[in-house]
Amino acid sequence: xxxxxxxxxxxxxxxxxxxxxxxxxxxxxxxxxxxxxxxxxxxxxxxxxxxxxxxxxxxxxxxxxxxxxxxxxxxxxxxxxxxxxxxxxxxxxxxxxxxxxxxxxxxxxxxxxxxxxxxxxxxxxxxxxxxxxxxxxxxxxxxxxxxxxxxxxxxxxxx
Amino acid sequence: xxxxxxxxxxxxxxxxxxxxxxxxxxxxxxxxxxxxxxxxxxxxxxxxxxxxxxxxxxxxxxxxxxxxxxxxxxxxxxxxxxxxxxxxxxxxxxxxxxxxxxxxxxxxxxxxxxxxxxxxxxxxxxxxxxxxxxxxxxxxxxxxxxxxxxxxxxxxxxx
DNA sequence: GTTTATGCAAACGATTTGCATCTAC
DNA sequence: GTAGATGCAAATCGTTTGCATAAAC
Lengths: 159, 159
Description:
The structure is a homodimer. By secondary structure, chain A is of the alpha+beta class. Chain A is built from six helices and six strands. In chain A, 43% of the residues lie in helices and 21% in strands. In chain A, a hairpin with a 5-residue loop joins strand 4 (96-100) and strand 5. In chain A, helix 2 packs across helix 3 and helix 3 crosses helix 4 (56-68). Strand 6 of chain A pairs antiparallel with strand 6 of chain B. The first copy, chain A, binds a DNA duplex through residues 17-20, 22-23, 39-41, 53-58, 60-62, 80-82. Chains A, B: Zn(2+) binds at residues 100, 103, 140, 143.
């Protein structure tokens, strides 16, 4: 974990960006909450606990910076908020997501399942693929089990 | 085309929504600009040419309505604007998109290329898929040709 | 006639920006 | 010392909402 932080710091340095405590704090929060899909506001609130003087604008600016450097990926599940996801180290491609339309949970698939599909697209559409976004909308395992158990929970979350 | 409009009108009627001229105008615009990926503002401007008294709020409300009825799909390419795409008649799934990071053009893939991938996901992740969003980011054919100084690549894109 | 839809303007929330101040280098 | 980064507040932009009026049924 410490290694990973250091490597990100080096990336910033290499790209000649200054290493401010705010930037470090933001990266730390992302590392500590890797499984969640934090919005800028989420990151801001986490940091505020320890460093109350940070500004939301700085969070936005830093997240944009990290997106440019391909350290994080900016995703949008259609709810009007951008979320920021640490990219797996060395990952060429963005991972996939499973969004539950019942409970809103988001699961990640790290494997790249699109190899064959991309070959087809590159060949038949003459499109040179650089990255992809794949999200499945459906019912997660927990909600499936809930549904078959008792037909009560109906907290629809439409996208 | 006229048939399609009528069928959509019937869908509205069946769901007991009123058939207002505004709603019809919005559907017409969507039908006339099927290849584009119109934002609410785009739709608004197109309609304004012929019916200047329409309000932007009505456009938003109608597009939301059409999304609920699964007549259109709401997409987001990450530029902060929602776009609305007519769904192919009878399509169970959302079509795929090819977004060019050079020129910003958006191409559509109507075929469903995810059959096998979805089987894998349902089986290995126990996730019941209802719909999907798949977007490839890369370089479109035209921009590739531009980059290589006009290298010819005449193979037909057939499937 | 009742219910639903509309248009307008105001409200809203997420994100961006201008600017004076600060800080990493 | 200087270029770049920050914090704050104000501005911006897409979208939603309240409400009185109008139109579809």
